Write the structure tokens for this entry.
Amino acid sequence: MERDTYALEELDPHIGNLPLEQIHQGTIQGFIAKRKADGVSSGTVRRELAVVRRILKLAALYWRDEAGKPWLEGQPPMFRLPDWDDKKKPYPISHDEERRLLSVMPQHLSNMTLFALYTGARESVIAQLRWEWLNHIKEIDRYVFLVPGDFTKNGTDCLIPLNIRVQAMVLSLKDTHPERVFVYRDKPVLRMHNSGWKLAWKKAGLPMDKTIQKGPHDMRHTFARRLRSAMVPHEVIKALLHHVDGDVTINYAPAQLEELFRAVDAILEQKTLLRVVNSI
């Protein structure tokens, strides 16, 4: 909601005074040009325009006035979305960089980052985590979060198995808030990529190059790279990253869950092994 509100505030000077039927490629072009001139990435502009497209779709298909007529007659317009070939490259972090980053973060942000590193969950999911989604798999004495599709990017339920380190951290937070997992001063943390994150990234000595990502999504890339390094099967990685395209064959019965837990445990063991090797 906060992000959508910001997008609409940026759009308002350009199309805020127009009737819905006058919002189209021609009238949004000034907004696109202004955002580019301001140095905003094309990816950010595409996300902002997605808010407009959503509103126009609702106005055409669902919303009605007192007479029962749609707010917008006909099909909602399509936009040519900008692509300035400016996509930033991901930056998976090393185990040493992980240690430095976590050590300079406030505790609540360190907990969220640890969760991201060892589950691959998206920032939006982590910020929304609720205790009611935590499930104990009695047959194997392990914990998972089962996130409803209403809170995931692709609209399908997402299962997040916890390795031992993350499980211990999560259970240690059980009494901090009755509803939400990650809070600060009794209030839910709505975003990881905040001023605290940016300061910690800099203090940890991580790259400041403008061509790379420097946000929580890098933790997801780190998780995926470590799974590949641990020789985790491709279909298991897809299941853990919640890439749902019809060919993921992992079933979430207790016996099959063990394969997911072996994968998330493998990257924790990988870190332990690396520490031992480096100390020899």
